[in-house]
Prior knowledge:
Elements (H helix, E strand, L loop, with lengths): L1 E5 L6 E5 L6 E3 L6 E3 L9 E2 L14 H6 L12 H17 L5 H25 L16 H19 L1 H10 L15 H27 L7 H10 L1 H19 L9 H32 L6
Antiparallel strand pairs: 1-2, 3-4, 4-5
Helix pairs in contact: 2-3, 2-9, 3-4, 3-6, 3-9, 4-5, 4-6, 5-6, 6-7, 7-8, 8-9
Amino acid sequence: MTIEFNCPNCGALIAFDSKHAGQRAKCLTCGQKFLIPAASFEKPEKIAPEPKPREEPIPGFYRAVFLDNWRIFVRPESVTPLAFVIAVVCFRFFLSGACCLGYVAPIIIWGWLFGFYLSIIYQTACDEDVLPEIDVGTSVTFLWHVLEPIFIFTYTLFLVELPFIITLSLANSHGITFDHIWSGHTPLHLLLQVFQIGGLFLFPAAILTLAVGQDFTLLRPDYLLAPLFRAFLPYLTVVLLLVATCYVEMHTTQEIGKDTMTTAKNLGGNLLVQVVAILSMRSIGLLYRHYGGYFKW
């Protein structure tokens, strides 16, 4: 269900999903921060005076990413979310191969995890240094809580890779398929490689835009590219952390080993993926927190 209300500062009409009720948010028109009300057209509570746009970055980005970020795992408020993440990973590891769960479990688990990642980015960007509360929805909304984050991640990846997809479809007439992109050195092969890497490079900026801005119309090239040029090294740091997450995930297995040691090693790899993922998602939110003035939206 959608909650509609007016900004307490400028009166702009704002809409959020009801699952965000009580959380902090910011008006994209004037920058006023407030608490999202529980019902439509309730007056939201201001939590800070109208902020002035900060053109200069806040120092300490690298310290926040590589040192302060780890504190999230020892905060008392993080016990419940971390316990739930561990339970989800263990469920996937031990039970995903049972009967039809082999097909259903990955969709449910990754849908919930993607939603958890989006909430991490949002809360970190809004100066919240705690992990988001667990929200699996009710019997009616559970499916939407699973499918919506999957759609957001998939659609975002599709948009940033759209130049690559279009070029690849045109290259099929020249005998170039997806499997042969990196096996050739023709100008067309190089163009496809650039488009593929470029799209993946833009993905963190795109997912940050949707997690914080929550509007697909904000996925404009000028909006995505502006912070990249002005904060290139911090953004590259975020990209590398996300690449590390994907690398660790690609080198994990869901198979239970023949002995306890192998099983523990495989399960530990799956848990390590979530540790790196949480750190990388928080780094995306920290990028906005420290360099928010560089984002046009």
